[in-house]
């Protein structure tokens, strides 16, 4: 039998991706944590693995890092199949949710650890450590212990430690979720800036859709171990392929209906549903729904649904309404302009939205 | 077969199972030589025949066991040891409960200091603490001299059961206190406050709320103290002065002085059986409480 | 902090019980400074002669040396044997790890009087009685369970991501263990060493079975001394032992306290 090079067997042609996953699968007994995961990440891109906890995103990251074994499938980096290579020979930089700094070493020694393992000459190592610490703006803290630093500073050290070895890929496992809201925004931008400046390929695991949408080139939405959709943040948000993606990324209103002959009937509305037959879910995002008190009629331009206000919530920058309509509670939100009256519960209103803002999925 | 069907072995020279075996080998050897084999051997020894002088014979039989279970001396020894140990256990519980309750109620530095004072005796050799009791209980000791100064003829407090009971109770108190404390976690002061606001007197609150809630801790402490009492050797030997006969002291005498090893082995196994009974009783009590 | 008043009755009873609990330790101190030839409380005269007597008692000094040596050897072996065992049980989790763990800590369930006899019966025919090796082996039986238990807890509470971080940075498994795992276990190692040292140094019953006329440990020598004549020398020795114990505990507290500043 002919021995073939692993990357050819894995079905990968050169140039498809710097990091490629081919049928990556992880089973624990009957439970499938990651199911037939295929992905190509071009060089220099920042990709987010987004999904609820238990969706397999962290397991996937750990398999890429070599910290968890894969049941089947391949991991290919720059044309080299690294499946089965132990983590210490993978050349990945991993940043942990818990920072995972060495508590018994100072900051400089933490950052120098990877260089020491690679037997980088002392003088060069010292220079690179200095640069890395400067890059994360921690110059002067070299001889502090991790415990003496704040959470944000610790995470910056972890970033410097991962990057100083110039890894082929940077892996970030929920790096911001232990930080408070303000620091989170700051660190998010900092990670993105550094990643762009170094042109490093990076995978960013998160359960926070805001993080994924705001800083990543591509977003991979996962659920129950399966890839639901992959695309740019814009594609994911504007054109969710599945009901799960529509519901997980951004807020959504759901209406149950029935489709036949390419048209879905929902609460008296007729919605275009090409290719659907049987029960469907029709969805629209709250901020794409307009609310008016002067009875807009449904036409080709807008879908319209009458209802009654059940709750009004003034949240400063936005005004939210809950409206009983179409046999369910629909939500709307609109930016406040100042001076508008807040409608009392019981007020009859009409909800309307554009057909292109309407998503239709087969009911599960 | 293609290359990628093979799992990539990395650079590990040994399989995980081999590594585990290698790491566990030293402790397994020590455990086998110093624990498993001696325990099995102990059981076998109790069935070995011996001459009247104590010299071991190559034959086995039930002679030793028949002697142990029919001789009134050994039977008294067993029942006496159980009785004394039970009495000491109850006494230890009564003496330790207030300390544990107080420790549970107080907090901060004061609690730490008191806790250290409870643990300190544990870190001190039983020989030292027993010696301390000799200084208190002997004929020239603290109590005797204090009573004499008051013109009272002091009773004998040492080289008899009284001394053994006093000494052992104190020696076992730290164990009981720690066991009680570990079980006091469920005792939220708000339960007591609730009972008081519902009209229960402090005394009733103690019996109806505090005692039931702390019962698991008491059961654990009693098990521990009974087991330690019936197997303790140094204190009964030194404070009993050879006049108090208990299972543990008899095992030592049979093994070292009389050199009747089958008898010593049989008595040891009786202690282990009593342990088993105590443990079973504890498990049943715990289930009833819970 | 919400303070709840503690009833004066409980306070009083607790005070009495604490006096009872600490009485034997308290009386030892004045007796150690007794000037009498025999033990009496209160002593009729005061001196430090009994402290001097310890160092002129050849048997006591020899037993003391043996005890220190024994405790050190037992502690070192306990760490060397206990650490690999704990690592295998906690980290590699072989099948039956729990059963093995129970087996290795089972010797603690046996009363030392029974364990001592059982070991005596096996060691006597092997000619190990009255030898240093025999004492080491016997003490290991009771120190190893503590070592395995404390080290297992220490290992189980270590944050695994820190070791994984080292691995992704290029450290091989052995390097991870020596450069990351072991330094992080520092306080656990110190506590284990202290515990093993104290357990070995204080052990009486096992040693009583194992020692002979030519080889004795300090607690055994003290036991025999008290059995024959309870003179104030034992009190002086006891005070020295309490001080030694305090020193060990302080060392642990210092290092464990230091370790706390490392870990958040």
Describe the overall structure.
The complex is a heterotrimer of chains A (364), B (290) and C (264). Chain A folds into two domains: 6-243, 3-Layer(aba) Sandwich (Rossmann fold); 253-362, RNA polymerase II/Efflux pump adaptor protein, barrel-sandwich hybrid domain (OB fold (Dihydrolipoamide Acetyltransferase, E2P)), CATH 2.40.50.100. Chain A has nine helices and 20 strands. Chain A has helices spanning 6-9, 57-65, 107-117, 122-135, 151-163, 181-198, 209-215, 233-238, 243-248, and strands at residues 19-28, 31-41, 46-50, 72-77, 80-81, 92-95, 169-173, 201-206, 218-223, 226-231, 253-260, 263-266, 269-272, 278-284, 290-292, 303-314, 318-325, 328-335, 348-353, 359-362. The two termini of chain A are 47 Å apart. Chain B has a single domain, classed as Orthogonal Bundle (MetI-like fold). Mean pLDDT of chain B is 86; it is low at 1-12. Chain B is globular. In chain B, α2 packs across α3 (72-105). In chain B, strands 1-2 form a two-stranded antiparallel ribbon. Chain C is an all-alpha fold and 264 residues long. Chain C has a domain at 61-228: MetI-like (MetI-like fold), CATH 1.10.3720.10. Helices cover 75% and strands 0% of the residues of chain C. Chain C contains twelve helices and no strands. The chains are: A alpha+beta (364), B mainly alpha (290), C mainly alpha (264). Chains B and C meet through α1, α3, α4, α5 and α7 of B and α1, α3, α4, α5 and α6 of C. Chain B: One of its GO terms (cellular component) is plasma membrane. Chain B: Pfam families: BPD_transp_1. Chain B: InterPro entries: MetI-like, MetI-like_sf. Chain B: The chain crosses the membrane at residues 20-40, 77-101, 113-137, 157-184, 205-230, 261-282.
Number of domains of chain A: 2
Number of strands of chain C: 0
Number of strands of chain A: 20
Count up the helices of chain C.
12
CATH-defined fold name of the domain at 61-228 in chain C: MetI-like fold
- Overall structural class of chain C, as computed from helix and strand content, comes to mainly alpha
CATH class membership of the largest domain in chain A: Alpha Beta
Q: What is CATH's topology name of the largest domain in chain A?
A: Rossmann fold
Low-pLDDT ranges of chain C? 258-264
* β-sheet strand percentage of chain A: 25-35%
The outline of chain A comes out as: elongated
N→C terminal distance of chain A: 47 Å
- The second-level CATH architecture of the largest domain in chain A is 3-Layer(aba) Sandwich
Major sheet of chain A: size, sense and barrel closure? 6 strands, mixed
| Structural Rg of chain A | 25 Å
Protein name (chain C): Polyamine ABC transporter permease
GO biological process, one term (chain C): transmembrane transport
Family (chain C): Belongs to the binding-protein-dependent transport system permease family.
InterPro entries (chain C): MetI-like (IPR000515), MetI-like_sf (IPR035906)
């Amino acid at each position: 039998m002919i021995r073939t090079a692993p990357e050819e067997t894995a079905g990968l042609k050169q140039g498809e991706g710097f990091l490629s996953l081919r049928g990556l699968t992880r089973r624990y007994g009957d439970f499938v944590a990651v199911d037939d995961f295929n992905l190509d990440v071009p060089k220099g891109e920042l990709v987010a693995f987004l999904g609820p906890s238990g969706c397999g995103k962290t397991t996937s990251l750990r398999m890429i890092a070599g910290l968890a074994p894969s049941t089947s499938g391949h991991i290919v980096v720059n044309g080299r199949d690294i499946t089965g290579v132990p983590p210490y020979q993978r050349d990945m930089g991993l940043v942990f949710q818990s920072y995972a700094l060495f508590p018994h070493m100072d900051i400089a020694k933490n950052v120098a650890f990877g260089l020491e393992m690679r037997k980088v000459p002392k003088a060069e190592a010292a220079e690179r450590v200095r640069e890395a610490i400067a890059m994360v703006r921690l110059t002067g803290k070299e001889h502090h212990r991790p415990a003496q630093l704040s959470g944000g500073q610790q995470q910056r050290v972890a970033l410097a430690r991962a990057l100083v070895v110039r890894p082929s890929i940077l892996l970030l496992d929920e790096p911001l979720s232990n930080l408070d809201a303000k620091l989170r925004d700051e660190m998010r931008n900092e990670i993105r800036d550094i990643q762009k400046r170094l042109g490093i390929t990076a995978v960013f695991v998160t359960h926070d859709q805001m993080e994924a949408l705001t800083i990543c080139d591509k977003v991979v939405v996962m659920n129950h171990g399966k890839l639901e959709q992959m695309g740019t943040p814009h594609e994911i948000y504007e054109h969710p392929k599945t009901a799960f993606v529509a519901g997980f990324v951004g807020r959504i209103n759901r209406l149950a209906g029935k489709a036949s002959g390419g048209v879905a009937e929902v609460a008296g509305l007729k919605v275009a549903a090409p290719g659907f037959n049987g029960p469907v879910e029709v969805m629209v995002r709250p901020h794409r729904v307009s609310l008016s008190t002067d009875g807009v009629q449904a036409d080709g331009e807008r879908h319209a649904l009458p209802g009654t206000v059940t709750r009004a919530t003034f949240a400063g920058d936005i005004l939210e309404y809950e409206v009983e309509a179409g046999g369910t509670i629909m939500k709307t939100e609109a930016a406040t302009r100042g001076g508008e009256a807040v409608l009392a519960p019981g007020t009859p209103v009409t909800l309307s939205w554009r057909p292109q803002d309407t998503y239709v999925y087969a009911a599960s | 077969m293609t290359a990628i069907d093979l799992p990539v072995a990395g650079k590990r020279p040994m399989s995980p199972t081999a590594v585990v075996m290698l790491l566990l080998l030293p402790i397994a050897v020590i455990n086998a030589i110093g624990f498993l084999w001696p325990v099995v051997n102990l059981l076998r020894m109790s069935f070995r025949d011996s001459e009247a002088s104590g010299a071991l014979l190559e034959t086995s039989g039930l002679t030793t066991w028949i002697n142990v279970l029919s001789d009134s001396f050994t039977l008294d020894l067993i029942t006496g040891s159980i009785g004394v140990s039970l009495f000491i256990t109850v006494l230890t519980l009564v003496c330790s409960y207030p300390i544990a309750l107080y420790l549970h109620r107080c907090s901060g530095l004061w609690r730490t200091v008191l806790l250290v004072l409870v643990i300190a005796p544990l870190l001190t050799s039983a020989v030292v603490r027993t010696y301390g009791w000799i200084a208190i209980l002997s004929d020239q000791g603290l109590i005797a001299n204090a009573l004499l100064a008051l013109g009272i003829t002091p009773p004998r407090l040492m080289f008899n059961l009284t001394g053994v009971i006093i000494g052992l109770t104190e020696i076992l108190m730290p164990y009981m206190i720690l066991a009680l404390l570990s079980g006091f976690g469920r005792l939220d002061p708000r339960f007591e406050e609730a009972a008081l606001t519902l009209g229960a007197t402090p005394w009733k609150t103690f019996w109806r709320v505090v005692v039931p809630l702390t019962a698991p801790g008491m059961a654990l402490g009693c098990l521990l103290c009974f087991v330690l009492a019936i197997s303790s050797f140094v204190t009964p030997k030194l404070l009993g002065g050879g006049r108090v006969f208990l299972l543990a002291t008899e095992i030592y005498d049979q093994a070292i002085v009389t050199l009747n090893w089958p008898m010593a082995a049989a008595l040891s196994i009786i202690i282990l059986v009593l342990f088993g009974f105590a443990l079973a009783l504890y498990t049943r009590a715990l289930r009833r409480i819970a | 902090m919400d303070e709840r008043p503690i009833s004066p009755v409980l306070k009083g009873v607790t005070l009495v019980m604490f006096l009872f609990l600490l009485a034997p330790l308290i009386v030892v101190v004045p007796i150690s400074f007794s000037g009498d030839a025999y033990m009496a409380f209160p002593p009729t005269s005061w001196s430090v002669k009994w402290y001097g007597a310890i160092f002129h008692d050849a048997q006591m000094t020899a037993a003391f040396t043996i005890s220190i040596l024994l405790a050190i050897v037992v502690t070192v072996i306990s760490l060397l044997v206990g650490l690999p065992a704990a690592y295998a049980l906690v980290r590699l989790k072989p099948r039956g790890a729990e059963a093995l763990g129970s087996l290795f800590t089972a010797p603690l369930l046996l009363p030392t009087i029974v364990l001592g006899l059982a070991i005596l019966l096996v060691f006597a025919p092997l000619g190990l009685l009255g030898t240093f090796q025999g004492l080491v082996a016997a003490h290991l039986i009771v120190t190893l369970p503590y070592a395995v238990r404390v080290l297992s807890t220490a290992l189980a509470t270590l944050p695994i991501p820190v070791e994984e971080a080292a691995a992704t940075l290029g450290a091989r498994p052995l390097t991870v263990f020596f450069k990351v795992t072991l330094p992080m276990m520092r306080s656990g190692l110190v506590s284990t060493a202290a515990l093993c040292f104290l357990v070995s140094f204080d052990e009486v019953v096992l040693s009583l079975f194992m020692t002979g006329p030519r080889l004795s440990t300090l607690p055994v020598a003290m036991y025999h001394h008290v059995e024959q004549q309870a003179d104030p020398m034992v009190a002086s020795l006891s005070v020295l032992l309490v001080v030694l114990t305090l020193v060990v505990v302080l060392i642990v507290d210092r290092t464990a306290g230091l370790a706390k500043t490392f870990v958040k």
